[in-house]
Amino acid sequence: MTATLVTDASPPAAAGAGKTRRPRRRGPVVALLFVLPALLLLGALVVYPVLFSVGRSFFDASGTRFVGGGNYTEMFRDPATLKAVRNTAIWVVVAPALLTGLGLILAVLVEKVRWATAFKLLLFMPMAVSFLAAGIIFRLAYDEDPDKGVLNAAVVSVHDVFQGTSSYPTARARDGQGMTKEADGAYRTTANVSPGDTVALGLVGVLPGDLPDGARPAHGAASREAGPDELRGVVYLDFTPGGGGEQGRVDRQESGLPEMTVEAVRDGRTAGTTTTASDGSFHFAGLEPGSYAVRLPAANFAPPYEGISWLGPALVTPAIIGAYLWIWTGFAMVLIGAGLSTLPRDALEAARMDGANEWQIFRRITVPLLAPVLTVVFVTLVINVMKVFDLVYIIAPGPVQEDATVLATQMWLVSFGGGNDQGLGSALGVLLLLLVIPAMVFNVRRFRSSQR
């Protein structure tokens, strides 16, 4: 009876075990079915292009002749490619370091600000702007014309406040009217004069509408006689509005040129300097007897200061990096700020109670505790700057495109931007991939270690 009961009870138990094993076997299959679309998409958009580019890099421009490592050899012989490698190295060294430092400083300072959320929002807003739009914005901001470029407008305004600017950049003397142009652009009287003489220095090339405010007619000043120990004269616009008048003579309707520097020169040395009045008149008093030349220095005719050539060969790369900082500073600040909010406050308060100042707390406690976050931010930015393309392509003008090129733009230019050598372009793409992979592996390992 007992044996029968044991035998009858065993089959249901076995059946139950089989039922529990079937769902466990289905689990990986169901998971694979859910992941399969993502794997197919990843393979089509990432794996296949990578493998195709690797294979294409071993063929010539037409893709019909196998050249082996010829493209890789040519890549490091091409001056444009070497310049792209150099510029990419500058980007990798400068941009992530500056962004991480700025993000750290701003994240620490924002904690002291009352409106911290609004401040973070303002700094993070450029992240919402596409690289294309940001490139157009900074292309206009960096424009060399002060009437268009806001940066040069500010630079020119500051320069003119401290250095001043010429009021007569287009003025010139008439040929054969008693004045000679010197090599540096200055004008001087052809014939020497002496104390007691009066000279009239006529200039042309200035539109009546461009005359300084307060300019008065020069006829009265030209008719004044000089004293025995003074040299007197007038600088005037030798042009009568509406026509008429006589060249080389101060007519009644002709205007004086105020605020112009005039020098009395003797034996190659400046004996006196003065500035013309509103009617263009000037005089030198107390001159020693002898012959002098009256000189109008070149500073009177200097062209206006045009600012800095931000997009010239020397500054184009730093200028583009500046635009990149504007976009990504908010990103670095927010990530570092998130790490800062998780720091143990008791350690900071204990340091303050022990007498540490804020700089010591920042250097010895905050930065070491934030080291993992700073590393992740830095490596992420390194990966990002290696792939920068939009800003360089949009901001750099055509003549300096080669001076600003990086690996990503060089790859595009070689393949599609006129080079039409997709073999060499694929080799550049493989080089870029090899440079990015170590940083990606390092970042993944950092994420895994932080999860543990």
Parts with pLDDT < 50 across at least 5 consecutive residues: 1-10
CATH superfamily of the largest domain: MetI-like
Radius of gyration, in Å, reads 38 Å
Distance between the termini: 57 Å
Strand content: 5-15%
Shape: elongated
Helix percentage range: 40-55%
CATH architecture of the largest domain: Orthogonal Bundle
Task: Please name the CATH topology of the largest domain.
Answer: MetI-like fold
Number of helices, counting only DSSP H or I runs of 4 residues or more: 15
Biggest β-sheet strands, sense, barrel: 5 strands, antiparallel
Structural class: alpha+beta
**How are the strands of the biggest sheet laid out side by side?**
2-3-9-6-7
The domain count comes to: 2
Pfam family, one: BPD_transp_1
Protein name: Sugar ABC transporter permease
Membrane topology: Multi-pass membrane protein
Subcellular location: Cell membrane; Secreted
Question: TL;DR?
Answer:
The chain crosses the membrane at residues 29-51, 89-109, 121-142, 319-340, 361-383, 423-444. The protein is of the alpha+beta class. It is 54% helix and 10% strand.
